[in-house]
Each structure stands twice: as C-alpha cells, then as structure tokens.
C-alpha cells in the first residue's frame, strides 16, 4: 500500500506561491534556472523566482483562462487557453513576444518538440495543431498543420521522443498518433473511458489518464498502438498527469484533491499526496525530478518531495476569509463555488472576477481594478438582494448576456436566499 502524506495548513512563513486570483490550471519549470511559471483561470501567467517564492512578473496576453503551458529549450515559455490563442513569453520582460489565434475553441494542452521548433496544441474544437515557433505571428497563422479526427474535445498532446509524431488524448476515449511525415495515416487506439491527459516517457511509452481513474500504458507496435497495462490509481477521474524527465515517475491528480505518485517501471503507486480536498488541476515535476509542484482550485501552488511524497511547503488558508472551508453557515457553504473567482475584501482584486466588497447598491461593472466585458458595461443593473437572487435563479448567460462569468444556477430557493443574506452581511 502506498504511503499517504497530508499537505496540512502551515504558518505563514511556509507559504510559497500565492498570487493567482483563480484556479491554477498550468505549471511549467522553464530551462532558465530559478524560475517557475504558472497559468490561471484569472487569465494571467505568473513568472516566479525560486527558491525565494517571489512573483517576478504577472504576464497578461490572454482574454480568457490560461489552461496550458510548455517550455522552449531557450528558456522562453508558451501559454494557451480558453481564448484559443498561443502566446510566447520572453525569458525576461512582460510583453508577449509572439501570439497567434490557433484554434476556434479553448486549448487544453500544449507540447514542444524536442528540437524546440514546433508547438503542438490540443483543443476543444476537436483538432490538434502543430505550429512552427517561427510562424507564430498573425501573418504566419496559416503555417500550422491541423489534424482532424477526434469526435470530442482533445484534452492532451505530447511529442514522441524523436519528434517525428505527436500523440493526442481525447474525450472520445481515443488515443491518436499523428505522424508528421507526408501522407502517413494516424494510428488510433480506443480505450475504456474518456481521456483527460497524456504523457510520453523517454523510451517512447505513452501514458494516458482516464476519466475512469486509471492510467493506461500504451506502446507502439507494428505501426499501431497497443495497450500494455492498466493501473487504477483513484476512484474518480484523473484530470492532470506529469512525468519526470527520466521517465521513472508519474504523478496523477484528481478532482478530489489527491495526487498519486507512481513508479512507472514497477507499475505501482508509491505515495498519495492529500491537500485541502479541492480539485488539483495542474502538475509539474522539477527538471531534476526532486520536487513536484501542484496547483488547484484554491489558487495556490504547493511543493512536494517527488521521491518521498512528503510536503515541502504547505499553504495556510487566508484567515480573513469568512467563507473558509470550516464555516458551516449555509450562505458561506453555497458561496464556496464562487470563491475561486470572487474575493470579499476591498483589496482582493487579483481574481478571475471582481471583488464583491461593497456589492449591494453597486452598479454592475463598476468595481475598481477589474476589466469588465463590454457587454456588462452597457447594462443597467444595480446589485441588490433581488437582482443577485435573480442572477442565480436564471443563470448569468440569461441575466447578463455576454458576460465572461461561468454558468452557475442555484436551483434551490432556500440556498439562493441564504447566499444573498450572507453576501449582504459580509460584503458591507
């Protein structure tokens, strides 16, 4: 049985990467020494300086959530997200170096070829695109090779070690190998469940993460793909997957907040890392294989010992947060679904949505420090208990068309009432 380690709350001195205003959806360690880069639902990319755990720069070039990151060999970083754009960031500075509209739907996965010349992207438009780095400008947007065939969202993509093919994982339960040579047909393997992520080991073995809570080990055989083994690692879907540079260890994360470390050679879990019980959306091993970074719905990045599984840094909750997990007040419990995007303090502005401080009596789209959509700026709504209740009764898309707010309907009138009464109290 694998060891279980808890990432319990720690004193403020143990905090590491706290700065995003939404769930941390992507993590990568660039080749530049001492850097870590993260991307978030708050539409930002943050470049961190380690080991000081200091935010070196907040990078803004996306118009929606950032969901994927990849590192180029020269130290630059590539980001992509729900706006369908791919952005290249320099080693230093805050201005995007290059940007291209690569897909017509959110991008869920990125990979860089071994020689650093190509970027592969997996999208919910059901395609995989392979774009030359040098063509990532509006003028060069047509240079990408687009591979079609998935029948549902494509969630992950990776290059084979020789760089001559990419493999994609789709929610249609297929793993597809796309040769980059001319006139070569793809290889398709159907697995037992929808797929959320994929990784490739240095020896060429492919590992796919499924909604069935399993890791599927796949090999190339006779020009096709063959399942080698299945390893069940958690009771719910695996939503993120990472592999060490030497291929010896895997990390799989789930919606329940657990992360399982797996010995790939032995095909067995060696440790389970348990954080605050919130979804873990992103994983990245340090290049030396000694540390594992995890990011999740609590907007924080945690660091773990990748060998023992023990927490290196554990994050303390914000003591000012009246909606902390320990609260049993009904309105606070309902609000937990909103915490990833909205803070309650006047200075809590760095999130995917505006602060709710001073909400009641405030005209829509007027909170300071937040960039609202044009649609909201033109609306004649004042937030009152009645209008807030109506928002959650019919949903944001019906009540505030054109908003970037995720769809959220509270069907139970008692829950709506509890939320509104609680917000009226805590946002004054």
Automatic annotation (TrEMBL):
Cytochrome c domain residues: 326-427
Keywords: Electron transport, Heme, Iron, Metal-binding, Transport, WD repeat
Keyword Electron transport: yes
Name this protein carries in UniProt: Cytochrome c domain-containing protein
GO molecular function: electron transfer activity; heme binding; metal ion binding
WD repeat residues: 17-58, 59-89, 100-130, 147-188, 273-314
InterPro entries registered for this protein in UniProt: Cyt_c-like_dom (IPR009056), Cyt_c-like_dom_sf (IPR036909), Cyt_c_1A/1B (IPR002327), WD40/YVTN_repeat-like_dom_sf (IPR015943), WD40_repeat_dom_sf (IPR036322), WD40_rpt (IPR001680)
Statement: the UniProt record of this protein carries the keyword Electron transport: yes
SMART domains assigned to the protein according to its UniProt record, in alphabetical order: WD40
């Amino acid at each position: 049985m694998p060891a279980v380690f808890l990432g319990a709350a720690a004193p403020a001195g143990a905090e590491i990467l706290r700065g995003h205003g939404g769930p941390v959806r992507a993590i990568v360690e660039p080749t530049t020494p001492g850097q870590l880069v993260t991307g978030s639902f708050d539409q930002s990319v943050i470049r961190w300086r380690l080991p000081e755990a200091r935010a070196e720069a907040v990078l803004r070039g996306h118009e929606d959530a950032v969901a994927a990151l990849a590192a180029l060999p020269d130290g630059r970083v590539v980001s992509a997200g729900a706006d369908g754009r791919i952005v290249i960031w320099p080693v230093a500075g805050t201005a995007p170096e290059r940007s291209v509209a690569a897909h017509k739907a959110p991008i869920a996965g990125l990979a860089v070829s071994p020689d650093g010349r190509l970027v592969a992207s997996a999208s919910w438009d059901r395609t995989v695109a392979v774009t030359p780095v040098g063509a990532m400008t509006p003028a060069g947007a047509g240079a990408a090779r687009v591979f079609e065939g998935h029948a549902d969202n494509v969630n992950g993509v990776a290059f084979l070690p020789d760089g001559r093919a990419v493999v994609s994982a789709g929610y249609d339960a297929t793993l597809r190998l796309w040769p980059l040579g001319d006139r070569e047909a793809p290889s398709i393997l159907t697995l037992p469940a929808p797929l959320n992520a994929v990784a490739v080991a240095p020896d060429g073995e492919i590992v796919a993460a499924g909604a069935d809570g399993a890791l599927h080990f796949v090999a190339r055989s006779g020009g096709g793909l063959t399942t080698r083994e299945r390893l069940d690692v958690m009771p719910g879907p695996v939503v993120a997957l990472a592999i060490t540079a030497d291929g010896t260890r895997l990390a799989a994360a789930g919606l329940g907040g657990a992360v399982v470390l797996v010995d790939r050679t032995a095909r067995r879990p060696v440790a389970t890392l348990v954080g605050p019980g919130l979804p873990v959306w992103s994983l990245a091993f340090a290049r030396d294989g000694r540390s594992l970074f995890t990011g999740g719905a609590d907007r924080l990045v945690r660091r773990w010992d990748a060998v023992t599984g023990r927490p290196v840094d554990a994050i303390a909750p914000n003591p000012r947060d009246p909606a902390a997990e320990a609260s049993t007040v009904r309105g606070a419990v309902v609000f937990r679904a909103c915490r990833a995007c909205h803070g309650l303090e006047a200075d809590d502005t760095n999130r995917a949505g505006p602060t709710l401080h001073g909400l009641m009596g405030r005209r829509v789209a007027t909170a300071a420090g937040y960039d609202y959509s044009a649609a909201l700026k033109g609306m004649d709504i004042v937030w009152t208990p009645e209008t807030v209740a109506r928002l959650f009764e019919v949903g944001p898309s019906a009540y505030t068309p054109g908003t970037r707010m995720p769809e959220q309907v509270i069907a139970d009138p008692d829950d709506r009432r509890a939320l509104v009464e609680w917000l009226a109290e805590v946002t004054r």
